[in-house]
Amino acid sequence: MTPDIVFQLANLSVLPAWLLMFVAPGTVVTRFVVYSYVYPIAFGILYILLLAFTLQTGSGDFGSLEGVKQLFSGEWAVVLGWVHYLVFDMFIGSWELQDSRQLGISHWIMLPCLFLTFMLGPIGLLLYLLVRGLKTGKWSR
Question: Which of 125, 101, 102, 99 is nearest to 112 (CA)?
Answer without folding.
Answer: 125
